[in-house]
Amino acid sequence: MTKAIEIRDLHKSFGDLEVLRGIDFEVEVGEVVCVIGPSGSGKSTLLRCVNRLEEPTSGTILIEGEDITDPDTDTDDVRRRIGMVFQRFNLFNHMTVLDNVMIAQRKVLGRSKSEAEKIGMENLERVGVAEKADQFPRRLSGGQQQRVAMARALSMDPDMMLFDEATSALDPELVGEVLGVMRSLAEEGMTMLVVTHEIGFAKGVADRVVFMDDGVVIEDGPPSKVLVDPDHARTRNFLRMVLEGE
Amino acid sequence: MVLSMFDWWRSLSKRRKVRFWRGASYVLFAVLAVGFVVAVDWGRVGDTMFRADLVADQFPDILLIAAKNTIIYTILGFIGGLLIGLMLALMRLSQSKPFRWVSAIYIDVVRGIPLLVWILLIGLGIPIALGIRVPTTYGPGALALSIVVGAYMAETIRAGIEAVDRGQMEAARSLGMSYSKAMIWIILPQAFRLMIPPLTNEFILLLKDTSLVSAIGVTVTSKELTRWGRDGVIHSANATPLVVAGLVYLLLTIPMTRAVAQLEKKAAQSK
């Protein structure tokens, strides 16, 4: 069976700074993989390479078997199949919540207004913010905005979802509602690649946990192994620091 | 005597010194104003610059023809400038080096030459040299205004586009929108919202700059305010028509200036 995501020897440099130094790993269809690691370890850059928001310096990324680093690849079509949720929500501020979840359906998928509205409302209900459909994003709490962002991505019927520290910009009391939606998505069988600091979420939801540091994958395995009994001292140090903070 | 004044001055508190200077400047202004009022021959000024029968003569045509034409030039120049400016701004932000270069050169060249020269070139120079005339009465003036205003607006529009958070473009692209779709549906609507106050300012500047169109040939029905006033002065050997034209400009610009101030205040509050 083709893998959802397959990354081979991925390198990424910003000028002289090499952020990713040879990454290899894969995500199976239906799998939830959490990427953890200290800030500056390159995990966000890795995620952004997967839908080509960052241009990889070298290496290959296969999405459902298709090499997206090939210059002939239609990146718009690849991105359409990959939903992405950002740390800072990035809702379109000049549109209502409903228009936020409809615009790409209309302009990219060419869905009719009524169809886009129906699918948009279904997804807003799915994340529990349907009653905010007519509001503008700035009137919503961070947690609500992030759930709208998820509904916006889900309305495109993506094959997989990327989460870039989706709860890091939220007030602590709002983290739970966003993680809750992510958890139910995982239970529905969505393929998910999640960059996160929420060790508890990784422990409870992930099929696999990847620990990154300094641009390389240090550890890759089931949460019961990586988060409980890691092979490397760096992983243990990181986990100790994170769990002390909690 | 001098010494005691000096001592008196030094004995004053800072606040009283400030008050003294303010009082002194009021007195100075009052003296100048009174001097001006006394020195000027008001009867003569009234006769040569604001003669009632000549004022009456201006209406209603100064509004129906001249002000209307000023507004038409302004709107045509604004729309043309907006289109050219938008194109230049997008070229300036493009990945393609040749586009960026063309845009930068256009902006520098056009802004480096006075608007009047452009108007004369398009309305007078090119028709005489090449026999090519921009069609329609408003054509040459509107084209010259568009070319120049576009170069100025390009920077305003570029700044507006760049002021939209980068995450907006990333979110749009992550949903599969192409660069141009993201620009049209996501970035530009937000950028133009940010640009309303500066663009309104450009509109007011343009409205006044249309007066330079008076330098190229016009027919009786296509005179704008300045040409109207100028021809009126020559015709009547009296300054009244130009004074009235000036007042009509004020009638147009002052409400807009107030509106910009309001818009800017609102924009500052919503931040």
Summarize the structure.
The complex is a heterodimer of chains A (246) and B (271). Chain A is of the alpha/beta class.
Question: What does this 3D model show about the protein?
Answer:
- The complex is a heterodimer of chains A (246) and B (271).
- Chain A is an alpha/beta fold and 246 residues long.
- Chain A is built from 9 helices and 10 strands.
- In chain A, the strands form 2 sheets. Chain A has a 6-stranded mixed sheet, sandwiched between helices. Chain A has a 4-stranded antiparallel sheet with strand order 2-1-4-5, covered by helices on one side.
- The mean pLDDT of chain A is 92.
- Chain B is an all-alpha fold and 271 residues long.
- In chain B, 82% of the residues lie in helices and 0% in strands.
- Chain B is built from 12 helices and no strands.
- Chain B starts with a helix and ends with a helix.
- Chains A and B meet through α2, β6, α3 and α5 of A and α9 and α10 of B.
